Amino acid sequence: MSAPELQTAADPAPAHDPALSLRREALRGHAAMLAFSAAVSGSFSLGAMVANDITPAALTTARFLLSAIILALLVALVPGSGRLGRRGFTPADFGAPWRYAVLGMLYAGYFVLMFEGLKTANPVAAGAVFTLTPLIAAGFGWLLLRQGLTRSMAAALTVGALGAVWVIFRGDLQALLGFELGLGLGIYFLGVVLHALYAPLLKGFNRGESAMVTIALVSLAGIFVAGAYGWRDLLATDWRALPPLVYVTLAYLVLLATVFSASAMQYAAQRLPASKVMAYTYLTPVWIIIWELSLGNAVPGVIVLPGILLIVGALLILLRED
Questions:
Q1: How far is residue 50's CA from residue 242's CA, in Å, rounded to a whole number?
Q2: CB-based contacts of 225: which residues, under 8 Å, 6+ apart?
Q3: H-only helix segments in 51-145
Q4: Ramachandran sector of residue 80 (left: φ over 0; alpha: ψ -120 to 50; beta: rest)
Q5: Cβ(37)–Cβ(283) below 8 Å
Q6: Is residue 204 part of a domain?
Q7: Cα gap 285→142, rounded to integer Å
Q8: DSSP conformation class of 12
Q9: Looking at residue 38, what is its pLDDT?
């Protein structure tokens, strides 16, 4: 037997390449987050189109009610959706229910303020405000959990914030200096602060619950929070007289912006580092522009292009982050 033949016999080619398998799983995680960012972005465009047809409290309460039902069914039926990779709820999931009340208050508050702001705010500018979430969340993370930042993470947050500010103020230095944010964006910014606080508390409050269990119970708490705030709106809403687009939007918010998004993020979080999962937040304004064009709505001019490029640059920096 020749030397090459001896070498082949001694060192057979591996039947399974772990590195290749990990690469494939990472690509699937990126695909999930790409779909996640597109689904979340659609809620801005559709929300702006129906914001004056139904009150934010009524829309948010209905969304949480339907989302809680569907997510509870998924937890009960889908393997791997519960604690320790099992399915179904456990008594431990319901421990310290005040956690879900706090998270539900922040989550419901974010959505109510989002749709309140979209009554007058431009969806693309609102999407740019949303990209400030990682920066604000990093501040809350340091205050509450003493979470630090790597250099590349800090650079990405800075670049992304600069891009967001450019889009929000449309490159107008006078508007920036005068902080001419506009009522709608100002309202939505308060919602973004609530959402940013929600992120570190979600991690700090977790006691082993899966992402699907957590969002199901947070949605359940959100029903009571939003309902307590807007029960008058619920009773006053003539649900049969609402335009069909409101029901299309509600279905979208429940099925894609909540149920699908929670599933996609849970899937991606098992395959990607947290920084890469967070990176896709920065695609929101880009997706919103695509949504606005596809729906035949007006979009900002080329003046916002430098800001969009900065935001995409922040995405690329975070995607390099290990």
A1: 10
A2: 101, 104, 105, 108, 109
A3: 56-77, 98-117, 123-130, 133-145
A4: left
A5: yes
A6: yes
A7: 26
A8: P
A9: 92
As for how many domains the chain has, the answer is 1
| pLDDT confidence of residue 252 | 96
Contact 138, 157 (CB under 8 A): yes
Dist. CA 291–CA 309, nearest whole Å: 18
Is the alpha carbon torsion for 205, 209, 214, 220 positive or negative?
A: negative
Helix axes 211-236, 56-77, angle to 10 degrees: 150
Is 226 a member of any domain?
yes
8 A C-beta contact, residue 60 and residue 108:
yes
CA 149 to chain centre: 21
Q: Residue 178: its pLDDT value, please? A: 67
Does residue 9 lie in a domain region?
no
Are the beta carbons of 42 and 256 closer than 8 angstroms? Answer: yes
Show the domain range for 278: 33-320
Task: Determine, yes or no, domain membership for 105.
Answer: yes
3-state helix, strand, coil in the chain (%, to 5): 80, 0, 20
Q: 34: burial class by Cβ within 10 Å (0-12, 13-18, 19+)? A: middle
Q: Which of 189, 153, 155, 154 is nearest to 169 (CA)?
A: 189
CA–CA–CA angle 297, 126, 164 (5° rounding): 115
The pLDDT of residue 106 = 94
Our separate counts of H helices and E strands in the chain read: 15, 0
Q: Determine the pLDDT at residue 179.
A: 65
Token pair for residue 29? 């995680």
All residues at 6 or more sequence positions from 202 whose CB lies less than 8 Å from its CB, including other chains:
103, 214
